[in-house]
Amino acid sequence: MDPVRIAVVGAGVVGLSTAMCVSKLVPGCSITVISDKFTPDTTSDVAAGMLIPHVYADTPIPKQKQWFRETFDHLFAIASSAEAEDAGVHLVSGWQIFRSVPTEEVPFWADVVLGFRKMTEAELKKFPQHVFGHAFTTLKCESPTYLPWLEKRLKGSGVLILTRRIGDLWELHPSFDIVVNCSGLGSRQLAGDSKIFPVRGQVLRVQAPWVKHFIRDGSGLTYIYPGISNVILGGTRQKGDWNLSPDAEISRDIFSRCCALEPSLHGACDIREKVGLRPFRPGLRLQTELLAQDGRRLPVVHHYGHGSGGISVHWGTALEAASLVGECVRALRTPSSKSKL
Amino acid sequence: MRVVVIGAGVIGLSTALCIHERYHSVLPSLDVRVYADRFTPFTNSNVAAGLCQAYLSDPSNPQEVHWNQQTFDYLLSHIHSPNAANMGLALISGYNLFREDFPDPSWKDTVLGFRKLTCRELDMFPDYSYGWFNTSLIVEGRRYLPWLTERLTERGVKFFQQKVESFEEVARGGADVIINCTGVWAGALQPDPLLKPGRGQIIKVDAPWMKHFILTHDPEKGIYQSPYIIPGIQAVTLGGIFQLGNWSEVNNIQDHNTIWEGCCRLEPTLKDAKIIAELTGLRPVRPQIRLEREQLRFGSLNTEVIHNYGHGGYGLTIHWGCALEAAKLLGKILEERELLRMPPPHL
């Protein structure tokens, strides 16, 4: 039986992890990852990669919890292994603080992270403007390290990697039998989806190795995320803004907000600015679409629209996408399909 | 009034600073000097990882619990300042691991967020079945000692590099009060059979993904003889050596292997970490800290000595509380000599 030829469009965390899941779970396929951008130039590379979920309006909470749990467990195993340094995954503890008590005092993901509890009075003294907080241990998954590690493993599994800009999904026909669309914001064009739009995020990458804890201000607009080679300070949420150039005024504002939470950051050095466009959508799109045009058919599994939460749920959604791909493969292999080939 | 501090580790420098801060404005004639043969980065305080954590069992001197608390509170108050990193200060959270249930320590309310470990957390450490999680502080000698030195220099305190052979020599040189912060070598100035070296060896590695301390405890082996991993500002300290009575200041290959194997077993991610340095230090071990006055007489010369040594492996943890106590003792001396006018009791 000839292998089913699968094209994964997009090489951010979603594209690469989906390719990985498909290669592991769907037998009899040959996979090619196609993208115009690869690490370190993807949107994922700008994200700090903290495993703290974003809430997807259209998806039931139990499903979101499942995605998060699957991602957390998967990365936790990596963080505890000798691969941790190469994969760029590690544990980090810290605080999520609020200026007023939130309506939901215990978020749905509290029992997925480690050691979740409310902050004590003594701990809150560090943040005089805040009255409530959560303390927990979670994971950080740094794309500039994680994506190259994934790419290496993909190549080791026989997955091909191709640099090419795709303007239309039909370009992949007839070279490929199934397309997995992980193009994030690119889906505006590739899937004709006007529901997806950028939410611009600007961050600072600084050297401040004495910062060992994350601090996230309730809404998530201001945050300090210590990583392996830098600390990420953020951020912004600018809807509909496509500008990828850093804004100096915004950088000053981010720095000032973060220093208010962690005064020792005044001693930070080697400050660099980065901008990423979060692929925002009212709901995460994880579904199969059978494209048809002039007698041609092309099954597409859409897997995009992760907004702020891509890294937090990537493995869980990739597993689900792989399962959808598996269904497409089975559909292609049933006798009625064969007669059309 | 000349006060000579002997010793320039964390105890000597912090005591000198505490004294100067407290008395210089009320006693302008106060002249504080530091004599030492070793300065940063060659002191034992430079070898220590600097994690603020007292021993697990209650100290024989209950005052030490209070001094630990005072030190923690003092350092915590500086954590919020922009200077924290220059002082070598950082908040750090982490794990204390045991092979069986263990009673809560006296310092559980001093540190932040003290709690027991959950099952999932314990799953990370297959050799251990019980433990604690809490947030504490590190104070790194590598940055703290230079910071203390700068503060002292700003205040006009002078430093003299010399090996002091006797209290008498310092007294005859003009010291009215001597503060003995000579640590593990105090016995050279005055024999003290209670003071012994607790030799420690550590490996410093580059492992910036480590954000938590991990301390293991084995009641059969005793303190510091079970692997520990303590991330610092730039490097991670790996340790687990404590040899009572060993004066060797040279790194030992067997100890290296003990540390490396123990720590890699505890934390497999360290396997490929790059080794940056390896150091040996001598903890000044004593059943309790010697922090007291002694009057010495050399012919017609009456000299006050305040001893402040014997801080074992918890010198950085307890230093400020001891400095405050030493300053209090100096205050009594100054009162006795009627140098300090204390307000009359009826006010």
Automatic annotation (TrEMBL), chain A:
Q: Which residues bind D-dopa?
A: 223, 278
From the UniProt record, list the reaction(s) this protein catalyses.
D-aspartate + O2 + H2O = oxaloacetate + H2O2 + NH4(+); D-glutamate + O2 + H2O = 2-oxoglutarate + H2O2 + NH4(+)
One GO cellular component term noted in the UniProt record for this chain: cytosol
Q: Name all FAD dependent oxidoreductase domain ranges.
A: 5-323
PROSITE patterns listed in its UniProt record: DAO
Cofactor (UniProt): FAD
The reply on keyword Flavoprotein is yes
Q: Which Pfam families does the entry mention?
A: DAO
Superkingdom field: Eukaryota
A single GO molecular function term of this UniProt record: D-aspartate oxidase activity
Chief localization class? cytoplasm
Assigned keywords, A-Z: Cytoplasm, FAD, Flavoprotein, Oxidoreductase, Peroxisome
PANTHER family, per the entry: D-AMINO ACID OXIDASE, D-ASPARTATE OXIDASE
Q: Name the family.
A: Belongs to the DAMOX/DASOX family.
Write the protein's name.
D-aspartate oxidase
Report the source organism. Neomonachus schauinslandi (Hawaiian monk seal)
TrEMBL record, chain B:
The entry's D-dopa-binding residues are 53, 217
PROSITE patterns named among the record's database cross-references: DAO
Q: Which residues bind D-serine?
A: 228, 283, 313
Which Enzyme Commission number(s) are listed?
Answer: 1.4.3.3
Alphabetized, the UniProt keywords read: Cell projection, Cytoplasm, FAD, Flavoprotein, Oxidoreductase, Peroxisome, Phosphoprotein, S-nitrosylation, Secreted, Synapse
Domain of life here? Answer: Eukaryota
Where is the protein localized?
A: Cytoplasm, Cytosol; Peroxisome matrix; Presynaptic active zone; Secreted
Q: What is this protein called?
A: D-amino-acid oxidase
Q: Report any one BP term from Gene Ontology.
A: L-proline catabolic process
In which organism is this protein found?
A: Neomonachus schauinslandi
Primary location: cytoplasm
Cofactor(s) in the UniProt record:
FAD
Q: What class of enzyme is it?
A: oxidoreductase
Q: Which Gene3D superfamilies match?
A: D-Amino Acid Oxidase, subunit A, domain 2, NAD(P)-binding Rossmann-like Domain
The record's similarity note reads: Belongs to the DAMOX/DASOX family.
GO terms of molecular function: D-amino-acid oxidase activity; FAD binding
- According to its record, what are the GO cellular component terms? cytosol; extracellular region; peroxisomal matrix; presynaptic active zone
Q: Does the keyword Flavoprotein apply?
A: yes
Domain FAD dependent oxidoreductase, residue spans: 2-329
- KW Ribosomal protein (keyword) present: no
The residues that the entry says bind FAD are 37-38, 49-51, 164, 182, 312-317
Reaction(s) catalysed by this chain's protein? D-serine + O2 + H2O = 3-hydroxypyruvate + H2O2 + NH4(+); D-methionine + O2 + H2O = 4-methylsulfanyl-2-oxobutanoate + H2O2 + NH4(+); D-proline + O2 = 1-pyrroline-2-carboxylate + H2O2; a D-alpha-amino acid + O2 + H2O = a 2-oxocarboxylate + H2O2 + NH4(+)
